[in-house]
Specification:
With 95 residues, the chain is an alpha+beta fold. It has one domain: Alpha-Beta Plaits. Helices cover 37% and strands 37% of the residues. The chain contains three helices and four strands, in the order E-H-E-E-H-H-E. The protein has a four-stranded antiparallel β-sheet. The N and C termini lie close together (8 Å).
Length: 95
């Protein structure tokens, strides 16, 4: 069953450019993963520093492989997360 991830990220407005660039880098690596079905990066309208990510994987195992990837560790954990002031994630099974 397909597995979706919706992540809400917020950073200080001064860090918005760095977070945006890193998320776009992560998008390229993630879209190349065999189990990735979608990876969309959105800037939240009227919320400086706000981002929304919509990710879809073939299954939970595909998402686990994503989290174990080098680009996830280097870009998301290493470059994005340290700049965030807020982060929430929702996991869902696609019906």
């Amino acid at each position: 069953m397909a597995f979706a991830v919706i992540a809400h990220y917020r950073c200080a407005p001064d860090d918005e450019g760095a977070v945006r660039a890193a998320l776009l880098t992560a998008r390229e690596g993630t879209r190349a993963e065999p189990a990735n079905l979608a990876y969309e990066v959105h800037a939240v309208a009227d919320e400086p520093g706000g981002f929304l990510l919509y990710e879809r994987y073939a299954d939970r195992e595909g998402f686990a492989a994503h989290k174990a990837s080098t680009h996830f560790e280097e870009v998301i954990v290493g470059r994005v997360w340290p700049l965030l002031t807020e982060r929430s994630v929702t996991f869902a099974e696609v019906l």
